[in-house]
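cron nightly-structures :: item 1 of 1
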Amino acid sequence: MRVLIVDPDRARRQRLVDALSAVADTRLLLVDNTLGVVEHVAAFAPDMVIVACDAPARDAIDDLRRVTETNPRPIVMFVDKQDSEHAEEALRAGVAAYVVDGLDPERIRGVLDIAAAQFRVTQELRRDLAEAKATLAARKVVEQAKGVLMKRRGLDEKEAYALLRKTAMDQGKPLVKVAEDLLTADRLLGGGV
């Protein structure tokens, strides 16, 4: 397992290193702050990112958000001080586990396991949401294209859909691509959809 540890405090960082040394075949990369964390994640390709700090700074949370957007990894944040506002921001930034005053070496492995599971569940939900949004957007495009055909050709809804499907099959294109092409042509011809 490859773990990136971000912690400015040497003693606290050493407690993390000691706790993770019990895990077989673990490689660690230790850094002092989140500045450059996106590059560290890209180069080191960790299985997990652990951030430990007194309290999360807004810049650090923004850095972790960029990791989530560019190269998602399970992120665990251990903080010494409770801060509800920053906790919510960290979770929205992609932190899978936010632990306050809980850097107990005996608990770390359990926290990491839960964070990895939470990350997998969250990634599934994000994929499902992205697919649902894409499906909804495609349906909207098809509906608009049917509207153009109904208006321009005097077809009813069923006939317009059948024509779109037949054209898609004849051209070997996805239905949404044919619908997009139709809408583009209609705009070029002054249809104004």
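cron nightly-structures :: done
The domain at 132-188 is CATH 1.10.10.10 (Arc Repressor Mutant, subunit A).
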